[in-house]
Structure formats: C-alpha cells, structure tokens
Amino acid sequence: MDSFSCRRNRVVKDGRKTSVVTFAQRRMTSPVENVLIIGAGPCGLAAAHALSKVLPRDTKIDLYEKAHQLDVPRGAGLGMTVNGLKSLRAIDKSVFDHLVDQHAMIIESVNYLDPLGKVLRTEHGEEMNRKQKESYGLHGVQVGWFELVSTLRETLPPNVAVHTGTRFLRYQEEENNHGLINVYFEGQEEPVHAGLLVAADGYFSRVRQQCVGDGHPIFGGNLFWRARVDASLAQKFNYKSGHSAWYFGDNRVALVFTISKGHMVWTASCPEAELVDAGIDWKTVTKGKEESSAMSSDFIQRSMSNGEDAKHRLLKVFESFDQDQLLQLFKATDPTAIVEHALYVRPASDLRPEWFGKGRVVIMGDAAHPMRPTGQGVNQGLEDALQLAKCIQEAGGSFEMLDRFRANRTERLRPIMMEAETRGKAAYQKSAVAPRYDTAVASKEQIQMNPEDFEAFLFDGADFEPLEVQA
Predict the structure, then answer these.
(1) Which of 306, 328, 345 is the last residue of a domain?
(2) CA 15, CA 252: separation in Å to the nearest integer?
(3) What is the 3-state secondary structure (H, E, C) of 409-450?
(4) Angle CA(129)–CA(134)–CA(135) in degrees, nearest 5?
(5) Within a domain: residue 466?
(6) How far is CA 241 from the centre of its chain?
(7) What is the CATH number of the domain that holds 391?
(8) What are phi and psi for residue 61, nearest 5 degrees?
(9) Residue range 55-113, pLDDT digits in tens
(10) Which of 110, 183, 283, 323, by CA, is between 20 and 30 Å from 405?
(11) What domain range is 265 assigned to?
(12) What is the distance between the alpha carbons of residues 141 and 258, in angstroms, rounded to a whole number?
C-alpha cells in the first residue's frame, strides 16, 4: 500500500532549517519532503490550515501564488453559507471566530426590486437567520473576499510558507523516488520536491490541464461587473448598511450588499444575448484574461487599466435600470475599482472523480468544479479543504484516502452543481415578486430537489465535525 509519511531528517530551504519527523502511529513509511499547494485563494489557504492539523506538526507546507501582492483589497464580497462556515469552524475554530467576530456582516433585510427600482418584496433577515440557526446551529453571513483571504493568510501556522510572484509551470512524478513529485516554476531551473501536490489555482488551472487534460472550462454565457466601494458612497444613494438589494428583470441581475462596516459591494450581470443587443463582443472583452482568476492581482491590474471601457459597457447594458439609485451608484464608482469578467463553468453532467486529480495530485475549488455563482463557489472550496484533511486523517495517511476523497466529493458536488446550473440560469428570467426563483422557467426534471430539501442537504449533508489536531 502506498502511504503518506515523513522520515526524520533536517533540510535547509531558503536559509531556514525544517525538521521532518517520523509519524509511527499512522504507519507512514514513504518519505515526504513537503506538501505543495498551488494558489493562495480561500481554498488553497484553507487547505494549508486543514492539512497542518492532520499531518505531523513538522511537515512543511509550501503555498505558491503567482500574484506578487496579497494585501490589496479586491472587488468582491461573498455570502458565507452554513456549510462553508461549518467547514471553516471544523478546520480551525479560532480562525472561524476571528472572521465572524471581526469581519462578518449579518443580513438585516433583503429587498427585491424590479428594474426601475420599485420594491416588490422584502425578506427580513432576523426571521431567516433564526430559522437557519434553529435548524443548523449557524446562519449565513456576508464577508469581503479580501477579508476572508487575509484572515486565512494571517493565521497560518508556522510550518506553512507562502511564496508570492511564483507561477506554476509543470510537474513530473518520480516513480522511483519514493513517489515524490518534482514541481517546476517559471524562472526557476531547479524543481521543488513534494509528496503531495494540491491544486487550488482557479478556473484555468495549469495543474488540471496537465493532470486531467480535459481542456478549459466553457463560457457560461454571462458577463459580470463587480466593485467594492466605501459604504458612505453607497449610502449617498440610499443603500443602507446591512440591507441587501436585488434587482431582477429584462434578463439582467444586479445586487448591492454589505461586506463590512465600512464597505459595500455591487455586482451586475447579464446573458450573452443582452451583450449582443448592446453591441458587446464578450470574446473581445475577455481576450488575454483567460488564465487569470477574476480576483487575482494580475486580473485586477488589467481591469483597472480597462476600467473606463468596462464602466461604459456596464452602463450601456443597464441603461434602462433604476436611474435614481443603481445607475447613480454605478456612475459614481471609480472605474479602477470595477472588475469585469466572464463566467466559466464545467457541466455537472460531466463531473467525475478525475476532476479532483490523480495519484498524488489533488485538484480542488474552482480548479476542480467551476460552477454558476449561486453562493457555493468559495463555500464548496472550504468543504474541499476540510474533506481532504478528514480523508487523510481517517485513512491513517494511506493514499487510498485520495481516491476516497475524489469519490466522496463527486457524489456530494453533482447535485449541488446541477442545482447551480438550474437556478443560475433561471435567475435571469426571475421575477422579483417570486420567492427564490420562478419555477415556471425550470422544469421538474431540472429541479433536483425542492428548496427545503436542498437546503438541508447543503447545510447538513456532510461531515462537519472538527478535525483532530495531530501532535
């Protein structure tokens, strides 16, 4: 049986001494110099936290990120749903507590508006949060993408090193060298050796291209605009902190919501047909950005230099929308703060265990399962990190745990991705009057579960028990 282990030795890397000790309790016999993670987004950072809990304390974990800077606030917020919060809490409760106490915002209300800004329906956050907490022990919150990443990065344990400005090139498995992997980076002649390679490098994962070889994800049919703005700016147009505003109609969707005490985020999107009507060619807009995550620093830099053009396209697509609030907020937003990107997905019907890697290569997060944005992208990435660590821990380090992880995640993700496809597409035909989404635009065959059953499956359908910290 192939196994994941460490032997006692002392190596010098970057001028630092690193101890690697034998972990006899788990019967690990193969030498592992370190674990190597590609991508320092939420998923990669969470994986570093989780693996540091279940592997011997002296196992070195190196995290490589192509971005040069990680401390620049970027233009997205996200809803952390119950399953994502449970995953983070199970990985490290102190990190969970810090994020929730310092950065999370509780939704006080959600207004659903028509394109002209008329409020057609209101959901009160207190009632929604109470029901979720009664059913699942937690309720969802809103946070900034930057705040989540910063919290995860700043709380990394000492055995995790982050290397920035380093772009993954390729890897080579050494069958006769204890199963180790040689990982090559651009501009570096010598490889980095790893016993386990974890790819959390986004939609256009280079690791996936080599490991799975199934090409790039496909264009999901939508273009998005996002911006992070000071709460004071949004408040000038009567958007209140803690209160979200959803606009639905005319095959367009927009959202304004709070991510911190001082910041709000707006997002807007439309299908390809509306872009064509507005004379916008999405291929031209996204050309040259394909290998960048929408939140990566290199993508942000390109977007900043193209901000005026992006803003012009946004205003053209949404010119018929709420003139008093939404368009005024768009117009008042600094163009350099606007991030414009296309949606890329992989069909749920194609999902198979190989999407999560082969052998000693594990693929996770958007690299493994890019899906429509229905609130589960980052949350499922956190689940990936937790469940990988659990499989390693429960299998005593055997490499059989990697196949178990892949099988479990495939079974778990398939219905979630199918629901994301159905509900994501339905959103553009949704009425602000209808709760959740219009069932008229989705057949019973397309809807895998009713909303209540799906929520229970999503929030309670996995093992969210805390990891056992390894001595």
Answers:
(1) 345
(2) 54
(3) HHHHHHHHHHHHHHHHHHHHHCCCCCCCCCHHHCCCCCCCCC
(4) 100
(5) no
(6) 24
(7) 3.50.50.60
(8) -120, 120
(9) 988 899 999 999 888 877 766 899 999 999 999 999 999 999 999 999 999 999 999 99
(10) 183
(11) 77-147+219-345
(12) 10
Two tokens at 439? 């069932």
Q: Would residue 196 count as lying in a domain?
A: yes
Report strand pairing: 160-163 vs 338-345: unpaired
**pTM tops 0.70, yes or no:** yes
Q: Using one digit for the tens of pLDDT, what is the confidence trace for 177-229?
A: 567 899 999 999 999 999 999 999 999 999 999 999 999 999 999 999 999 99
Percent of the chain whose predicted confidence (pLDDT) is above 70: 82
Do 327 and 356 lie in one domain? The reply is no
* pLDDT higher than 50, residue 129: yes
The domain tally of the chain equals 2
Q: What is the mean pLDDT of residues 154-179?
A: 90
How distant is the alpha carbon of residue 132 from its chain centre?
A: 22
Question: If you search the block for the tokens 């999370």, which residue do you land on?
Answer: 104
- CA–CA dist 215, 206 (Å, integer): 10
Burial class (CB in 10 A: 0-12, 13-18, 19+), 469: exposed
Half-sphere exposure of 174 (CA within 13 A, CB side): 15
Question: Residue 130 falls within a domain, yes or no?
Answer: yes
